[in-house]
Amino acid sequence: MNAFGHRYTGLIDRYRDRLPVSESTPIISLGEGNTPLIKLHNLPKVLKKDVDIYVKYEGLNPTGSFKDRGMTMAVTKAVEAGSKAIICASTGNTSAAAAAYAARAGITAFVLIPDGKIAMGKLAQAMMYGAITIQIKGNFDDGMRLVKEVADKAPVTIVNSINPYRLQGQKTAAFEIIEELGRAPDYHCLPVGNAGNITAHWMGYCESSATDVTKVTESCAFCEGHCKYAGSIVGNRPKMIGYQAAGSAPFIRGAMVDDPETIATAIRIGHPQSWDRAWKVMQESGGWFDECTDEDILVAQKMLAQYEGVFCEPASAASFAGAMKDIQSGKIAEGSTIVLTLTGNGMKDPDTAIAQCTGKSVMVQIPAELEAVRTAILNNMAQ
Ligand code: F0G
Question: Probe ligand 1: pick from 147, 170, 197, 251, max atoms within 8 Å of CB?
Answer without folding.
Answer: 197
